[in-house]
Amino acid sequence: MATITVVIPSRNDAPFLARCLEALSCQTRPPDEILVVDNGSTDNTAAVCEAAAVRRITENVPGIAAATACGFDAAGGDVLARLDADSVPPANWLERLEGLLGATGELTAVTGPGDFYGGNRVTRWIAEHLYIAGYRWSMNLLLGHPPLFGSNFAMRSSMWKRLSEAVKRSDERIHDDLDISYHIAPDMDVVWVDSLRVGVSARPLESWKGLGRRLSMAWHTFRAEFAEEAPLKRRRMRRQRAAPNDRAAAPETD
What we know:
two-stranded parallel sheet
């Protein structure tokens, strides 16, 4: 059976982190390692990690991209599962991830959406039906495969080893999940499972400032990715990779 490390980047989110770690302690398939990446917290994040008896490492380069990459690099598991500090996974989350990954190839990641909590009814509706649904639809169109959702995904460590050479680590305005998604190579894939859900705080969408910050980061990430590789070129490479496989799989006809 593969070992699983859960990686959680966190900065000044101690109350949310405590709830996330409590949910992980109730998993039907316990994690083999929980790794909290402390990205310059000034609250009691260290005490929360100590109380939960989980491993905590520090990353001094600010930004979610640096923290995620640091955690994935340091993880000891065969499978790297990713949560945000405000994620609340259901009790069967790791059990489902293990089963889903076991049914895929080595270079396939698995992801799913979030069920938003907090805020008000309107905020939660916008978050689920516009923010997440819009993200999945638009990124699938752009990438040619589903995007990773940073609050809820997993991949094998062997897949990360290849991706780690390309991802951006030093820019705090980069969305890590979008950056990793853009670097999914033509021989890799992402499977989106709508029923693989975790609780996610709606707080980033409770204000225009919070929403604006996320959209600004998305645009900044796009600019960085497109400068490195144009999206049409990226899609063309994926189609070229898929074409021989499609022909090989086609049944012979008389």
